[in-house]
């Protein structure tokens, strides 16, 4: 049976690495937990790290965080849907917002619940996902800050999330200037400029993050240790907090070329035959995961000599080469994961999740 592990000591190692980095740069930070898909065992490990703020894009996940530790600050990190307003006010201490009407609904609900709800105004910096346009920001803030039971505690932005626009010093300076404009015009204090995500961390290494950016929210680099500019592992971090283990359910020497008339498979793929493979065979292992669980492109075999031949809904085929490599039915094959692959596995109810040291 396939299962996913979270290595507690490697998670703690990466957390301490980032915590030291942010402390040295006088930056507050939060952990983004959306990758965990609400898994309570894994959420508990995040809380155990000692982080004071957790961000997620699913209100059900923030509800679980509050049930595990009500003292953790919870942040809903996408513009709220109207039909979720009451739950967001109840389970999220703060939310990211870009629409006045939505913040008005949050205000009305916060009054009903006798709570103060914090708001971070997201500003468009070019990636064209969520964000108030810069030229509209002053009027937007003027309307929002008058609403009862609403407190604007920050401004922020997202980059590299839709079109892949990369962060730069210029864009982060621009975000910092918006804070100064708001504070000067309205004689208020905006505590946080949350311009930092995992993709911005490499700029910290180069001392290219303006002093005004004083808050980061990170997930991917915590779990995978990767530099999103270069695609390489950050020196001093661990890449394998998560690991997927799959079980071999068949291992047989078979022809390399399919036998029969070829047409589209259920995934809509049509295979082309490599002429050099006629008459050749190789050992093929079937493992107990498939397209229902993960796209094979997001799997990284721990053994570099293994290659993935294909997948169906519930099974995945590995080419072992000219020998069976002393593998047998029941053996485990380990994989490291890309971010989107881990997201698929964590969202699957069919894959067991374990915490290991």
UniProtKB/TrEMBL annotation:
Q: Which Pfam families match?
A: Ala_racemase_N
Does Isomerase show up as a keyword for this record? yes
Entry-linked InterPro entries:
Ala_racemase, Ala_racemase_N, PLP-binding_barrel
- GO CC field: cytosol
Alanine racemase N-terminal domain residues: 7-226
UniProt keywords, alphabetically: Isomerase, Pyridoxal phosphate
* Molecular functions (GO terms): alanine racemase activity; pyridoxal phosphate binding
Q: Which Gene3D superfamilies match?
A: Alanine racemase (3.20.20.10)
Cofactor annotation: pyridoxal 5'-phosphate
Q: Do you know which PANTHER family this protein is assigned to? A: ALANINE RACEMASE (PTHR30511), LYSINE RACEMASE (PTHR30511:SF3)
This protein is called what? Amino-acid racemase
Species of origin reads Mangrovivirga cuniculi
Please spell out the taxonomic lineage of the organism that makes this protein: Bacteria, Pseudomonadati, Bacteroidota, Cytophagia, Cytophagales
């Amino acid at each position: 049976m396939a299962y996913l592990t979270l290595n507690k000591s490697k998670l703690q190692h990466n957390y301490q690495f980032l915590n030291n980095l942010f402390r040295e740069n006088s930056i507050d930070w939060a952990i983004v937990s959306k990758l965990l898909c609400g898994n309570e065992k894994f959420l508990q490990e995040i809380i155990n790290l000692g982080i004071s703020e957790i961000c997620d894009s699913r209100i059900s996940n923030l509800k679980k965080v509050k049930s595990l530790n009500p003292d953790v600050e919870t942040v809903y990190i996408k513009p709220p849907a109207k039909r979720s307003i009451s739950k967001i006010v109840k389970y999220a201490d703060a939310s990211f917002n870009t629409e006045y009407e939505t913040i008005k609904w949050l205000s009305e609900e916060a009054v009903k619940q006798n709570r103060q709800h914090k708001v971070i105004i997201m500003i468009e910096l070019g990636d064209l996902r969520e964000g108030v346009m810069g030229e509209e920001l002053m009027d937007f803030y003027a309307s929002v800050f008058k609403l009862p039971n609403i407190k604007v505690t920050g401004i922020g932005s997202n980059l590299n999330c839709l079109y892949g626009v990369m962060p730069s010093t210029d864009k982060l300076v621009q975000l910092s200037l918006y804070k100064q404009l708001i504070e000067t015009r309205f004689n208020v204090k905006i505590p946080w400029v949350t311009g930092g995500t995992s993709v911005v961390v490499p700029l910290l290494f180069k001392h290219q993050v303006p002093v005004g950016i004083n808050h980061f929210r990170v997930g991917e680099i915590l779990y995978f240790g990767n530099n999103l500019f270069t695609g390489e592992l950050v020196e001093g971090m661990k890449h394998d907090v998560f690991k997927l283990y799959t079980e071999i359910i068949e291992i047989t020497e078979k022809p390399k070329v399919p036998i029969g008339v070829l047409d589209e498979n259920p995934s809509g793929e049509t295979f082309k035959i490599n002429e050099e493979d006629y008459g050749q065979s190789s050992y093929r292992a079937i493992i107990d995961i498939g397209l229902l669980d993960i796209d094979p492109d997001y799997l990284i075999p721990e053994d570099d000599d293994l290659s993935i031949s294909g997948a169906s809904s519930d099974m995945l085929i590995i080419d072992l080469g000219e020998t069976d490599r002393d593998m047998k039915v029941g053996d485990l094959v380990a994989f490291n994961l890309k971010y989107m692959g881990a997201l698929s596995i964590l969202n699957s109810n069919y894959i067991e999740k374990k915490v290991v040291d």
